[in-house]
Design goal:
Shape: elongated
Strand content: 15-25%
Number of domains: 2
Largest sheet: 9 strands, mixed
Number of helices: 9
Helix content: 25-40%
Number of strands: 18
Structural class: alpha/beta
CATH topology of the largest domain: TIM Barrel
Bound molecules: pyridoxal-5'-phosphate
CATH superfamily of the largest domain: Alanine racemase
CATH architecture of the largest domain: Alpha-Beta Barrel
């Protein structure tokens, strides 16, 4: 194989390390540093760190986060929580997603046997169904109210609506309301120079709502926010008790827009091989939409950032082909050459893979099963 035309220090896999591609390789050193940095930040801000595991879905990484001081984990789906309780020994889980329907409620009841579980609610219908089931089984379930602070996805609208909803939930038998949570995703989509202002506004809104609810003699220990891009801002608002970033473990090309993080902070890369060079300005990688998620790049054109080749653009993906448009004279794209691609959005990319290949100092040292991959129920 020809030597790559980039400084090997930017690559996480040494060129002489053989590997079958495409595969998702994680640099253990960058991963550990990302985990430690966020844990350190949370300690400094005086908030609990409850990482969202949807990014990695991997028990080994959940264990690393807990060992670094995480108070528990966040997940979206009950299936993710089940895997983490069984395989990572996680005993404190926030299901930060509207949990609706009897099959899921039965699984929550089973999960309560092995872990503390807090479930987010944003509708009276879901809260009443949980309440009825808990009453039937003589159990109490901790719940928190999901608040929409501006992302306009799920969540009770910030202000009067969320306060009134919280007071309704607080009265339901079988439920114990412990807090409020938001995903301040609107900060992530704000222009980079506005992210701080938008994130701080979301944090202040949350603290204000919590105070209003407490004013009705409801204890509310948890005020939880969560986003990697906003992670250095929202949790600094006095009164926030918990942060739930997820993407920070790996980072991806979307982080480049903020200027704080670069290639060296991206732990997870697709290692791909050039399988065709049909034209001087076109190469084809063996990573298509069945391995690299389709999300558009926020900070870089195309379907991912090719390390060391910022001008080479992955312009088109079909299922197994990643078509790269090359500038004149670009080296390193002969058939058989290998590149590292930083995904635009690492979370859905991980969900497409079975395993993470772990690299240390450029060598493959381990394989970790992405045990919660595909757990969308
Ligand atoms: C409810 C919730 N909390 C936390 C997060 C973590 O955000 P990020 O992926 O920016 O780290 C997400 C991300 O989608 C989320 O939906």
């Amino acid at each position: 194989m020809a030597a790559p035309a980039v400084a090997t220090s930017e690559l996480i896999l040494a060129p002489e390390q053989e590997v079958d591609t495409p595969c998702l390789v994680v640099d253990e050193g960058i991963l550990r540093r990302n985990i430690e940095r966020m844990a350190e930040f949370a300690r400094g801000a005086g908030v609990g760190l409850r990482p969202h595991i949807k990014t990695h879905k991997t028990p080994e990484i959940a264990r690393m986060q807990l060992a670094a001081g995480a108070v528990g984990i966040t997940c979206a789906k009950v299936g993710e929580a089940e895997v983490m309780a069984e395989q990572a020994g996680v005993d404190d889980v926030l299901v930060a997603y509207p949990t609706v329907g009897e099959p899921k409620i039965r699984r929550i009841l089973a999960l309560l046997e092995r872990a503390r579980v807090v479930v987010a609610v944003d509708s009276t219908a879901a809260a009443e169904a949980l309440s009825a089931a808990m009453k039937r089984h003589g159990r109490t379930l901790e719940v928190c109210i999901e608040v929409n602070t501006g992302q306009n996805r799920s969540g009770a609208l910030a202000g009067d609506e969320s306060v009134a909803f919280a007071l309704t939930v607080a009265r339901l038998p079988g439920l114990h309301m412990v807090g409020i949570m938001t995903h301040e995703g609107q900060a992530n989509s704000a222009p980079p120079d506005e992210i701080e202002t938008v994130a701080l506004a979301a944090g202040r809104t949350m603290v204000e709502i919590a105070e209003r609810i407490r004013g009705h003699s409801v204890e509310l220990p948890m005020v939880s926010v969560g986003s990697t891009p906003a992670s250095h801002y929202t949790p600094t608002v006095p009164g926030i008790t918990e942060m739930r970033p997820g993407t920070y473990v790996f980072n991806d090309s979307s982080a480049f827009q903020y200027g704080r993080l670069g290639v060296g902070d991206c732990a997870a890369r697709f290692v791909a091989t050039v399988v065709s060079r049909p034209a001087p300005d076109r190469a084809v990688l063996d990573t298509g939409s069945k391995s690299l998620a389709m999300d558009p790049g926020k900070a870089h054109p195309g379907h991912g950032y090719i390390v060391g080749h910022p001008e080479a653009i992955i312009s088109k993906l079909s299922e197994e082909h990643g078509v790269v448009t090359l500038p004149a004279g670009e080296e390193g794209f002969a058939v058989g050459d290998r590149v590292e691609v930083i995904p635009n959005h690492v979370c859905p990319t991980v969900n497409l893979m079975d395993d993470l290949f772990i690299a240390r100092d450029g060598r493959l040292v381990d394989t970790w099963r992405i045990a919660a991959r595909g757990k969308v129920r």
